[in-house]
Amino acid sequence: MEFIGAKLALFLGGDLLVIRRDNRPDIPWPDRWDLPGGGREGAESPEACVLRETEEEVGLALAVSDLVWARSYRQLNGVAWFFAAEMPAELAAAVRFGDEGQGWRLMAPGDYLRDPAAIPHFATRVETYLRERDGG
User: Fold this and answer.
1) Do 46 and 3 contact (CB within 8 A), yes or no?
2) Domain 3-133 has CATH 3.40.50.1010
């Protein structure tokens, strides 16, 4: 199956960077808490995709070496990749919000997992990463 897109659980000083999706009926998961990432462009790799999308959406230019966890998920329309990165809290000052979505914020991971506005399958993937990271 072909790779279609990638998302990033980006932790800044322990908090998760989340993006509030636009509140439009023509998009999936309107007005929900999303994570940086999106669809593949051309022949880019999953890493190149998630890094490009992160820079476009929140202005942070991360490196492949910043990606500390990766997992692929088979979906009906192809394979999606999910990454995690743990960066210093000070990087939040460099966030420059792009033109998609209503805004961004930092959220404690547990709050994201319990928030009814979190996109459910992304919350499950964040929870998987945290469980594996913490050894349980």
Assistant:
1) yes
2) no
